[in-house]
Structures are given as structure tokens and as C-alpha cells.
Amino acid sequence: MNATPQSVIPLLHAVVKAEASDLHVKVGSAPRVRVDGRLRRLQVPVLTPMDTDHMLSQVLPSDLVDQFERTHEADFAYSVAGVGRFRVNAYQARGTTAMVFRLVGMGTSSLAELGVPSIVGDLALEPRGLVLVTGPTGAGKTTTLAAMVDLINSHREVNIITIEDPIEVLHDDKKAIISQREVRQDTKDFSTALRAAMRQDPDVILVGEMRDIETVRAALQAAETGHLVLSTLHTIDAQETVNRIIDFFPPYEQLQIRTALSQMLRGIVSQRLVRTVDDNRCPSVEVMVNTGRTAEAIVSPLENPPLADLIAEGGYYKMQTFDQHLCELVVSGRITYDEAISSSSNPQDLTLSLRGLGVEV
């Protein structure tokens, strides 16, 4: 065992040097960094319980010490001068401390640089309503939302309130003014901050994640009263997103919520990251724009075509399915056929579509 426990600070320097997105530290393994989606081992000794306990003591805010001892989990932000800002999740595994650090930054790439469809920018500039960005963990939801906020910030003279846990991307005021509030540091929780936001003269409200019924209800009410609300859900596509929102509520409220959602929803952007031919990653994106037909399908799903079918047929409104976008990425040479198939919702249909476009598969 090391006489002096390892420090986390050199490891955070290594994240930036390696152009990595994440750092994983756990007992019994050398620290690993995620570079272009793959975990790579750092050339440092295997971590001991003393090492990870010391690392936690270096970064855990004092107001979360009791919570971590009680629940064995904590989310917070940590900054290192001259290195960067990190989103941190600390947890316990087999009785020992482990942590994951996600590097976040000042400012953001544009939507065009991220490679998402132009309709995402159109949705960001909607004057009111609800826009959701969804996908699994690590799919780039936060990055896309930050780019949407930056677009609003660059084009509209509005007041933007963000409620985040923790703040991941820092924004400077441009045409808009932006107040970024962090759960536990600046406010008790999402639903409390959302209720308070209504007294802060907002035009745009960003909710980092819709986690519970109180937050979902408050977000819908904010959208109903003429604000643009942006938020995320850990769902894989538009259909599951609608189902998840409805399922937050008891059965006797669900028809009312379906009606409200059909009226307030402006669009759902669902993302998956795929590996490109040059060994980087880019988003594959499904986009649902709420039209009269999709609104009817939200209110009465058994009496209307599935949302996936309406999205596939909604090219006029700039809608697209994952597989339609994967086709574009293969035809343009950005990703391989094998990568498209591994990410496809319907591999057989995708193969037939590519063949129809003259792609040899």
C-alpha cells in the first residue's frame, strides 16, 4: 500500500492532456479516462481504499459530507484553476469509494459544429412551449442543450434561467441575460427553483433534468404560461419520452396530461452517439416536431398511427428517424455500414433503405 495516498489533481490534468471526456477512479484498478468513447488506462498505480477516500476528501463539498455518509452517493461540480471544471458523481461500490469525473467547459460548440439537424436550432428559437432533448447517459444531451442555449443567447434579447445539477457549461451574457442556478448551492431542488423562476421574469427556462412528478408538472405549467422550457429525459426516442412523461402521473390524471403535452410540446430531439470512420464520434438524431397529427397521437395513441411512423413520414416538417439519419451518415461516408447497423432501431429496414440508395452492403 502506498505510504502517501494518491491525489486526484494530477489525474484531472491527465484528462485534459488526453483530450478525454471522463475519468473513472475505483479501488482495485488503475484510473481510466474515456477518449472518443473508449476507456484507456492511465499509467499510474492501482488505487487503494486510502487513495479513493483521500481523493473524495479533496473534492467533496463540505455540505455534502453528511449526505454521502448517509446515502453513499453525491453529485457536485469541482473546478481546478488552469485545468477545467468537472461534473462529479461519487458513490460507494463494495464498501469502497469510487468516482466519475466528467469534463465540462466554458462556452460550447454550435449546433452546426455538433452535426445535429438544422431543425434543432429552429426548435431552440421557438417563442414558447416545451422542447426535450433525450437519450441515454453520455449521448451528448447536455452538449446539445448548451448549444441551443447559446443560439438563443446569440439571437434573442431575453432572460434565460437555468436550473442544473450541477452546472456543466458556463455561459456569458450575449444578447440575452443568463442566470445559472445550481441545485443545493443556489436552490433546494428543481421543483422549488422552477416555482421561483416564475417570479424572475423569465422568457426561457432550462431544467437540467425532469426527474419527478413535481418537476414535470412545474415544467408543463411554465410552458402553458407562455415560456420556452428546455429539458432532458433519459429516454431513447420520442415514443418512450411521451410514455415516460405520462407515466409520472397517476392514471386519473393521464388524459389531462396527454392533452396538455399535446398542446405545449414543440419537439423532441433524441440522440445516440456513433463512431465515425476517422474514429471520432458524431450524433445520430431522431427529431419529432409536434404537428396536428402527432398531437392527436399523443392524446389518443390507440386511435392513431405510432409516433415512429409519423416521424418517418414527416420530412416536410424536417422530422427524421434514427434510421433515416443513419442512412444519411452512411451515404455521406461519415460512418460505416456496420456502425449504422449496430446503432439502428430496425437493422433490416435500414439495410433495405441503403440498398435502395445504391449502397453496397
Automatic annotation (TrEMBL):
Residues 198-212 form the Bacterial type II secretion system protein E domain. It comes from the Bacteria. It holds the Pfam family T2SSE. Belongs to the GSP E family. NCBIfam families: pilT_fam (TIGR01420). This is PilT/PilU family type 4a pilus ATPase. It comes from Flavimobilis rhizosphaerae. The lineage of its organism: Bacteria, Bacillati, Actinomycetota, Actinomycetes, Micrococcales.
